[in-house]
Amino acid sequence: MKNFWVVLLGCLSIIVCKAQEKPVIIGYVGGFKGLIHVHVSPQKLSIINYAFVDVKDNRAWLHFEATDTVNFRRLNDLKKQNPALKVVISIGGWTWSGNFSDAVLTDTARAAFAASAADIVRKYDLDGIDIDWEYPARKGMKGNIYRPEDKANYTLLFRDLRHALDSIKIQTNKTYLLTCAVGGFKDFVENTEMGKAQRYLDYINLMTYDFNEKVASHHANLYKSKKYKDKNSAKKAVKAFIAAGVPSKKLVMGLAFYGRVYNLASDTKKGIGDSIITRDKGWGYTMIRDSLINQNGYIAYRDKKAKAPYLYNAAKRQFITYDDEWSVRKKCKYVLSHKMGGVMFWEYSSDPKEYLLNEADAMLWR
Asked: What Rg value do the Cα atoms of the chain yield, rounded?
């Protein structure tokens, strides 16, 4: 009988460990658009990153407070369906990263910024902070402030944010998440101290999308392509961050729930690898799957080496790059085989039918 209980306890321990090791699925939800109208499935998510909170006068600032506060209540209500769900504020983003450098330049400014961010979390009963600074110590959107000191201050920002969250933990008895979204390219690693910064972070969300080459190319490829000369891939990003000292268990693979459109030159022959005239904002995956794939002149192809799909319309001379169910499966398998933290995606409203979220859910949780 004693042996029976030993075996049973051992089995239960294994089950508990496996439950704790389940990869995360993190979804960015766009509150910058106003009230959130898209249906969100909380049972398919670990963390919702609410995008975005602005940076103003060296403080975290609710740019659209009237709708932000309503959105916070609605997202917190989803915990009734999934009590394990976490709702985190994401600060910055492409448009609102211009003031980060000033906000973290001195000890005093940085501590005040961290306190203001933690205060939003406490006031609205949220679960943590995500920093999406695009980018420390290098150019992002035109007009953004950046300086060499950002490299060290980026690390100190997370130290001070962790301290601020630990301070409100004393009041609320809650444990808070601290994460960041990072550029999935070599320059981001070179302009930060990720090996030091990761000590304060729970997850590091790799933006392994929006890769831009000089020709029509994949924007979210897992591996290097043989169809053109490229410099970026998700695999390359993962290896760079691990080499910088980030444990793989903290790295989260980015999935693109949207596509990018390239308008090509008149001498285009095959789409991929051809010269670009202009780039356009693409469509969300629901639109791509339901209305474009193998329809209206858009022929679907797969780059089997890069594990990336694309569309080519010869008549319109258009190339569309995106993630689909096949590429999401490949990325999830990579996450599992390399013992990464999980996946995240930008952005929920781009795939309201949840084609890609369902695929990630099936691969990682079912």
From this structure: 21
